[in-house]
């Protein structure tokens, strides 16, 4: 079940996940489209910052899965509006990594 989005006039500040493994979460309140993890793994690098302009195909993060590093790439052009994970976080498939508006 999905939680209803909170009616906030401004984006909520990013909070570090409290659990070891981040669970899939709804996208940030309408500020773009999330780039999600294609498979379970550990975030070993975040390559962008909030406010960075990115192009489709540009690396936004690196995910280690099954002892291999996988580049996570933007699927569209835009500006990074949120980063949902931290270096070292364990993520499941489908978890938002960054949001690009």
UniProtKB/TrEMBL annotation:
**Task of the protein:** This protein is a component of the acetyl coenzyme A carboxylase complex; first, biotin carboxylase catalyzes the carboxylation of the carrier protein and then the transcarboxylase transfers the carboxyl group to form malonyl-CoA.
| Protein name stated in the entry | Biotin carboxyl carrier protein of acetyl-CoA carboxylase
Q: Any idea where the Lipoyl-binding domain is?
A: 26-101
* Classification of source organism: Bacteria, Pseudomonadati, Bacteroidota, Bacteroidia, Bacteroidales
**Pfam families named in the record:** Biotin_lipoyl
Query: Which spans does this entry mark as compositional bias, Pro residues?
Result: 1-14
Superkingdom of source: Bacteria
Region: Disordered; residue ranges are: 1-36
